[in-house]
Amino acid sequence: MQQLIRGRVLDFFADPADTEQNHRYHENGAILIENGRILAVGDHADLRRAGLEEVDHRPHLILPGFIDPHIHFPQLQVIASWGAQLLDWLNTYTFPAEAEFADPAHAARMAGLFLDQLTAHGTTTAVAFCSSHKTSAEAMFTAAHARDMAMIAGKVMMDRGAIPAVHDTAQSSYDDSKALIASWHGKGRQRYAITPRFAITSTPEQLAAAGQLAAEHPDCHVQTHLSENRDEIDYTLSLYPQARDYLDIYEAHGLLGPKTLLGHSIHLEPREIARMAETQSRAVFCPTSNLFLGSGLFDAEGLRAAGITSGIATDVGGGTSWSMLQTLNEGYKILQMRGTRLHPMAAFHWATRGNALALGMEDEIGTLAPGSAADLVVLDPRATPAMALRAERASTLSEELFILQIMGDDRAVAQTYIAGRPQKGNAG
Ligand code: GUN
Ligand code: ZN
């Protein structure tokens, strides 16, 4: 069945930082959808047809749904936990909360609520760390598959350095990941990410098992954390005294490459930057988390200049907002501290096509190109009285986007579509 979704339609086909010619905008636009895929995008006058079902979102903006390339499923009740930096925060709040995901009933309930929060905030694809329990990944994939939502997720591998309730072993983590890949990778829209949590919580044996999985499944992503916090780095290097630097630990275990997502990547040595660029490993910037945990200021421009592709992500529950709009807001401020300016066109490119490029999934998500999934977000730049007041003085599309970027959150998300299906109660 075909349907037409009408509004002010915007997407990107190139990075605004590279070229003036980067976006497509149809002021009186529409998106033609069939079986959850985009068939055509253009002016409403050209796409309308008698008898075609039509949803009218004017005057709102319609963009590709947001992509969140780094988030922790079992931390949805850890967000807003007071007073600690990374290692204390993990020990005090995070590991105990993740232990509860051994219970399949808890994991299943939380998986539905997790996906509800993503779509309420306009996020249509996320890359999620689950807990170390196979049940948590089963629950996540089951819930996402039922919604036809493109999720990338993995059971965390962690065999030391936390509490027994969240520890696996090198062998069990290999076996469980292998079984999850067999069940879920490529099933519908689900994909598996091999997920060693970080070097502190993995023995060398476990990182070797992760590297073996990556070699056996080169089409799976790999996700982990790198150089987030100074104490973390010092402790990591003490655990791996033979490593040249933090990245070298992952490199030595065969974990780098274009499918590898390295969360945070803040305090990097020149050699690490050069190797990330050579291996085409991705950095993932998590601005609200980096500020909340006092971790540091990501060098977006420096990594870009070195030829590294970066994503931008919430990192809930170290991150403080589910909203990619709020994530772009805090990202803007961190770039300010670094002396660069994040243009709203570049910001919205980043949260959509840019993150799709970081995942190597730009043919499937992140743009409105025909053939892509009809994963959409409908945004209202006048969603709150304060935004409407500010918008009275906005005369360009860039200004409207910037209001959304700085003042917007889930209230600005009028609707979210997953594979052509509206996720919010009303269609408005
Ligand atoms: N490093 C290892 N685990 C985590 C986590 O859960 N959150 C963050 N922010 N950093 C980590
Ligand atoms: Zn994280």
Structure, described:
The chain has 428 residues and is of the alpha/beta class. It has two domains: 2-65 and 368-422, Urease, subunit C, domain 1 (Roll); 67-322, Metal-dependent hydrolases (TIM Barrel, Alpha-Beta Barrel), CATH 3.20.20. It has 15 helices and 16 strands. The model has no long low-confidence stretch (mean pLDDT 98). It has helices at 44-47, 86-99, 104-120, 134-147, 170-184, 204-216, 230-239, 246-252, 270-279, 287-292, 300-305, 324-337, 344-359, 385-391, 397-407, and strands spanning 2-12, 23-34, 37-43, 53-64, 66-72, 123-129, 151-154, 156-157, 191-196, 221-226, 260-264, 282-285, 310-312, 376-379, 413-418, 421-422. The protein is 38% helix and 23% strand. Residues 70, 72, 225, 263, 315, 318 line the site of zinc ion (ZN).
Q: Summary?
A:
This protein has 428 residues and is α/β, with parallel strands linked by helices. It contains 15 helices and 16 strands. Its EC number is 3.5.4.3.
Give the tally of structural domains.
Answer: 2
Strand content: 15-25%
Approximately how much helix is present in the residues? 25-40%
Mean pLDDT: 98
Tally of DSSP helical segments: 15
Which class of secondary structure composition applies to the elements?
alpha/beta
What is the CATH H-level superfamily of the largest domain? Metal-dependent hydrolases
Bound ligand species = guanine, zinc ion
CATH class group of the largest domain: Alpha Beta
CATH architecture of the largest domain: Alpha-Beta Barrel
Q: Which ranges are low-confidence, i.e. pLDDT below 50, for 5 or more consecutive residues?
A: none
Oligomer: single chain
Radius of gyration: 21 Å
CATH topology of the largest domain: TIM Barrel
Characterize the main sheet: 9 strands, parallel
